[in-house]
Amino acid sequence: MSRSWRSLAIYLAGFALDLVTSPLAPAVAADPDRLLFVRPEDQRTVLFSAVDAGRSLFLTVGSKQTLVGPLDRTGFVIMETSGFGVTRERLWRDGAELPAIRLTTQTSTLVGHQWSLDRLFLAGFIGPEVLHEQLTVAGQVYRFSEPRYGAKAQVELWSHPTRDTLLTGTVVGTTTNMSLWTRGSAGYRIWRDLYAGPEVTAYATKTYQETKVGAHVTGVQLGIVQGRVSGGWMMTDDGRPGSPYLSIAAWIRM
Question: pTM here?
Answer without folding.
Answer: 0.82
